[in-house]
């Protein structure tokens, strides 16, 4: 890291027991209810790649943060059900102030977003007048309102390459994605010391164990992973992939089996989009409790009641829209 190291509050980690899967005896009825309500309410269901398989199965669109932001920006639906986490629903609300944005369980937060506050960004700007702030889309609306650009893992390199040279840059909050961007662009930046607890916990030993179990399998590693720096130094030339990049790579590769080094939900998306190939998770514990809080049941209930809603105050929304629109314009 360069520059002053900010003080980062501890991430809020939910209890693992929230992961326990529910058995739904009336699952077919719930699916039928969702179908009916989706039409009645003129709703669209957007699901992140890390959602449960059955939630991905009923979604109108499944994708990464950038893809979901694009869908949210162009939908004609009056109601957006966000099967994801809170900052994603906030982004949809910023892009669609006139629409109803639902997050079926408001506890669905993000340990990475929790590491960065708007005050932390303001403090960096006070120390670096004229500096530019690039924040990963995994941030609250308050933080986006203080940012110059948003990015996702899919376009972070492009966003940083578009910045004027010789300008101080803060890249926040994910230090592993920042390391990837610095490697790819050669740009020196101040880096916020944040991380996602799921990706940070993935160890090189997890990868080595799966490589021993699946000899010849190709690695698909996300740049947020805590292991990525160590793995890259051990395997020169290894590429990192955003979640959408993983799909393109698996389609283009001659390999038949892939070790998926990110949150386990990505396996569901890859199996659907790249049929006939085998995808194994790097570790069964690489599982985001927040993402798994969204269920068929609470999607049905939120459609029925049009609650809980996510809204963003007008003054924050206007400022947060600027870096989001810059991100969408860059690619
Ligand atoms: S996987 Fe990590 S970055 Fe993604 S929502 Fe969960 S805690 Fe946040």
Explain the overall architecture.
With 331 residues, the chain is an alpha/beta fold. The protein has three domains: 16-108 and 291-314, Rossmann fold; 113-196, NadA-like (Rossmann fold), CATH 3.40.50.10800; 198-281, Rossmann fold (3-Layer(aba) Sandwich), CATH 3.40.50. The chain is 42% helix and 13% strand. The protein has a four-stranded parallel β-sheet, sandwiched between helices. β1 (43-48), α2 (53-58) and β2 (61-63) form a beta-alpha-beta unit. α3 packs parallel to α4 (86-95) and α12 packs parallel to α13. It is globular. Iron/sulfur cluster binds at residues 50, 85, 110-112, 138, 196-198, 263, 288, 290-291. Iron/sulfur cluster (SF4) is lined by residues 50, 85, 110-112, 138, 196-198, 263, 288, 290-291.
Secondary structure blueprint with pairings:
Elements: H1 27-40, E1 43-48, H2 53-58, E2 61-63, H3 65-74, E3 79-83, H4 86-95, E4 100-102, H5 118-127, E5 132-136, H6 141-145, E6 149-151, H7 156-161, E7 169-172, H8 175-185, E8 190-191, H9 197-200, H10 204-213, E9 218-221, H11 228-234, H12 243-252, E10 257-261, H13 265-273, E11 278-281, H14 296-305, H15 314-330
Parallel strand pairs: 1-2, 1-3, 3-4, 5-6, 5-7, 7-8, 9-10, 10-11
